[in-house]
Amino acid sequence: MDSQIKVVLTSFMVSIIVALIILPILKKLKIGQIEREYGPRSHLIKQGTPTMGGIIIAITLIILTAILYSSNKAILPLTLIIIGFGIVGFVDDFKKLVLRDTKGLKPAYKMLRTFSNISNICIIYNKNRNRNRNNNTRT
After folding, report:
1. Contact predicate 88/110, CB 8 Å
2. Which of 5, 96, 103, 110 would suit a FRET pair with 31, their CA atoms being 20 to 30 Å apart?
3. Distances (CA, A) of 40 to 44, 93, 139
4. pLDDT digit string, tens, across residues 94-128
5. Which of 74-78's residues contact partners 24+ apart within 8 Å by CB, and which partners?
6. 93 near 68, Cβ under 8 Å?
7. What is the pTM of this model?
């Protein structure tokens, strides 16, 4: 339990440090929320709020996985799933911010890419599990 608390606190601290670095960059690049003109007026308040905060989570995850769990291959599928979800979110935000498409990625594409990410990881995980099982029965 103590090690889990240490990991959570470490990841929180690393996230804060990464956020302090990334948020000014996002503001400087004017990467902010874009609201539809025909939407509710109350949503216009969000206009310009920095978005793409998921990149902070992704960077933190990659740093901590590399430092704390580099020898633990069991965590790799989970890390890849999270990065896969992050890529879907990044593409959605990219379409909204850079291509100025307020709708972003179509929901069907989001679901397809999410399902694809999970399917690929399940296949990789099962191959590794079967390989480990075969290696253990040979000895």
Report:
1. yes
2. 110
3. 7, 20, 66
4. 887 778 777 788 889 989 988 888 888 788 778 87
5. 77/121, 77/124, 77/125, 77/128
6. no
7. 0.64
